[in-house]
């Protein structure tokens, strides 16, 4: 699918991987619907992108809110061709740690945002994509979901986070098969240790230590590299039902604590 002229909805689009992807899509001639909770950052980015960007405040865990926003996107743009799910919540907590037993809310909040939030947007957007006029290859839409290498290499304390990312990986193929006759592709990206604003809150020596774990190149991943991969997935019609690691060859080991 050509990015130019496409309508692309991006959750978590006001910062981090989502923001960089939004900028890349707009630069390639696509129209971006920036979906995020952060109204200030979202509106500022939309203003910067001009005619190629619009902001819609959204909590992806709220089903009715997602349906309403997709309706607003249809009203403004007529349709949606691509969704990129970048909204997510990280963090690490043991089930039984120094602060006691993990609150159940810690687990359910991550499921609600990371996994259910991803499915929510697909569920709301897919029927609209099905109405699109197919291109010469019969393609009507693309769904790109953000998982993590934690889906396979989860660390101690990541039981909640890793399980949500594993769920995202697991849904790619069933959804790709379900939407095959509709010309809608479904892919997942599994980032490794990425240089995002959230990770940047760590001390420099921690970031340096993380970078040294990556085989090559021995550095943190760039959000621009995520955006480039997302753009390639959109334009490469033969990529479907698969999950791609974006991690410099990193395989996280067992770090006993």
UniProtKB/TrEMBL annotation:
Keywords: Oxidoreductase. PROSITE patterns: ADH_SHORT. GO terms for molecular function: oxidoreductase activity. InterPro entries: NAD(P)-bd_dom_sf (IPR036291), Sc_DH/Rdtase_CS (IPR020904), SDR_fam (IPR002347). It comes from the Bacteria. It holds the Pfam family adh_short. The keyword Protein biosynthesis does not apply. SUPFAM superfamilies: NAD(P)-binding Rossmann-fold domains (SSF51735). Belongs to the short-chain dehydrogenases/reductases (SDR) family. This is Short-chain dehydrogenase. It comes from Desulfosarcina widdelii.
């Amino acid at each position: 699918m050509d990015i130019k002229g496409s309508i692309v909805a991006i959750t978590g689009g006001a910062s981090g991987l989502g923001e960089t992807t939004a900028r890349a899509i707009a630069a390639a001639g696509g129209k971006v619907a920036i979906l995020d909770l952060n109204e200030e950052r979202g509106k500022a980015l939309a203003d910067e992108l001009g005619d190629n960007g619009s902001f819609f405040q959204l909590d992806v865990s709220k089903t009715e809110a997602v349906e309403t926003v997709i309706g607003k996107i249809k009203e403004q743009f007529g349709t949606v061709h691509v969704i990129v799910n970048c909204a997510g919540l990280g963090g690490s907590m043991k089930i039984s740690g120094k602060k006691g037993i993990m609150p159940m809310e810690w687990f359910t909040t991550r499921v609600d945002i990371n996994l259910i939030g991803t499915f929510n947007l697909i569920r709301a957007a897919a029927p609209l994509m099905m109405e699109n006029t197919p291109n010469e290859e019969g393609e009507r839409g693309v769904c790109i979901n953000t998982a993590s290498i934690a889906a396979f290499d989860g660390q101690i304390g990541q039981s909640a986070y890793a399980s949500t990312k594993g769920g995202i990986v697991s849904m790619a193929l069933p959804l790709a098969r379900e939407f095959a006759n509709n010309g809608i592709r479904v892919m997942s990206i599994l980032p490794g240790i990425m240089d995002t604003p959230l990770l940047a809150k760590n001390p420099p020596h921690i970031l340096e230590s993380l970078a040294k774990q990556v085989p090559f190149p021995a550095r943190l991943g760039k959000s621009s590299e995520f955006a480039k991969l997302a753009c390639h997935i959109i334009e490469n019609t033969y990529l479907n039902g698969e999950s791609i690691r974006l991690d410099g060859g990193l395989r996280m080991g067992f770090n006993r604590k």
